[in-house]
Prior knowledge:
The protein is mainly beta. It is built from five helices and 39 strands.
Amino acid sequence: MWTVRVLAFFTSLALPVVAAATTFVLADEQQLAQQADAIVLGEVERVEPMRANESSKLATHVRLRVVEVWKGAVPVAFELVEMGGTAGGTEARFFGVPEYRVGEQVLVFATQRPDGHWATTSLAMGKYSLRQHDQQVYAVRDLGPETTALEWDGRSLRPAPARAVYDLEDLRRSVRRTLGGTLEPRAVPRSDATSEDLGDTYTAPFALMGSPGRWFQPDQGLPVEYFVDETGDATLGVEQTNAAVTAAMAAWSVPATPTIDLAVAGTMPPGKVDCSGQTQIIFNDPDNMISDPWFCSGVLAVGGYCVNNDDTVEINGVRFSRITTARILFNNGWGSCPFWNACNVAEVMTHELGHTIGIGHSGDGRATMFAYAHFDGRCAALRADDLAAVNFIYPASANLHDAAVLPPPRVKVRIRRGKPEAYVPVSVALRHGDTWGDRALFRLAVSDGTCPPGTVGAANFGMFADAPDRVDLAPGTQAKATVWLHLQSNAFHTPDSKAPARCELQVSAEVLASDNIDPYPGNEVVPVPLDVIDENDVDPKTASNQLVLGALKPLFLRLTRGKSELVKMVTVKVRNGASSDTVSLSLDPGDCPPGLVQAPLVLRSTREFRGVAMTGSSQARAQLPVRFAREMVNSLFPGSPGRCVARLLVSGQQTDADPSNNSIPVVIDLQDDNDL
């Protein structure tokens, strides 16, 4: 015999904050009164979990003895049917569903479902537990553990308490006014009587993820597959819905977590939210399991999974039960709310998928699995703590260390007259970028790139050539390496002292761990321009016919917290040689995000730097517009920026004596502190 447990998580949409395992956009008693089909005062006589006939669907039947009816027509013996419960070794647990205890006195807002059964309106929002204190009756609204509440004022969402205490008579008067057509004033929570004063009003029989679950398919190299409701979200449409699903799955299937791969198995009609059938993402709440939103308040989505507790495996010292199936159910009726869009739905989808693969809430406020939604434009994206969580449950078969090279400025070298060669040390910083994990050994690898063979000697961590070539770094720390260059006079020809020969070194950081996977790749490699003047060749009487593009320092662009955009103008110097020429600058954006780097402009002008007349032996300046927007990068670790490389090229109509200095890489590092 094997046992199944369902752990489910609720999320309700919120603007700058919220998306918890249970998150509500709060409805007050007047909104609930308009939404509910019945409002009753009563005492709980019986609580009985049971399984529906010939079904894997579990529900808890709650029998109330009604003592007072505020709205609707209900029998004296009134029964509610709530999601979840235990029966025959199977356990279904949904956070945010109201808990009832035998003997408890309650005020209940109830909704009748299409199948004729009654349920609490908007889950735990529609249930108030009554307590007497100092000769007065109070009604306590308690949304329960793992819940977060917000209030929507028509313009923005703000945090609200998950527990609140009201005077029962205030609620009665407010509801009576509402049913009479008057919506003000509402009942105000009492500050002189807390829920703690009134005793423990909520008992949660189960802890969130008390029995950890994980999929076993990744252990066999198989993907975890989800069927997607073929109808899609009614407001977003099928195309945008599928895009949100695909993006969310891709976020969890990043190269840093190669042992978990989420995939769409196909489409199918919406199924049941139970422990039978295929794993599925369902939209529009087709069976009306959740109360519809009311003026942008209510429950957004339900997500959870079923596990076989007799089939387990130990990972990182924790015993996990095998997940057998999972569900995500999105509510309907949110389409008219201003915060309902494809990006925010993608963030919630990513959060809910995280729950279905076994991840609970993060204590890191930056994480997508944090108990509050960010809705900061991240859409479907993970943060460092999300990666740490998924790698704990589904450890990669390889090592995971982020290696980052901090780009040095351009390197300028002069081979002195009379000297056949020059030896030059160049300092380069290497960083262990991730902030979680173990120490690791790193080394700096430097190749000649486009420079003459033999230019690069050793790269080591010390001031002498025989220093160690590797360094042991803890996460979040860095060390400086010395790269030794050997430049020979016969490898360069520079008759013009203002026109250096240019080549590019390739610098990369390497982790000395077998099968390492970099969780934030791209910044472990950087091109470094090397400008060389050989004084043995310089002839002061000779003016060469050359265009020279001045070297640029690497750009580090940082969005400070609260900023969404940064615009910068980078000055570019162009030098013309002996003859007059018509000069143009062009840009190759390389691997930079679209719109980050724009076409070079004439200084203090909006005209592109094309066909600019330059006299002989003159200089001109151009400006390179750079616009960094939040959506261009997802920062994971402080000190480990996203990196891209564009390229500037200068050209003219005259023949150039040395085109090596007509091009320069534009190295751009991007960091968004909003993510950190």
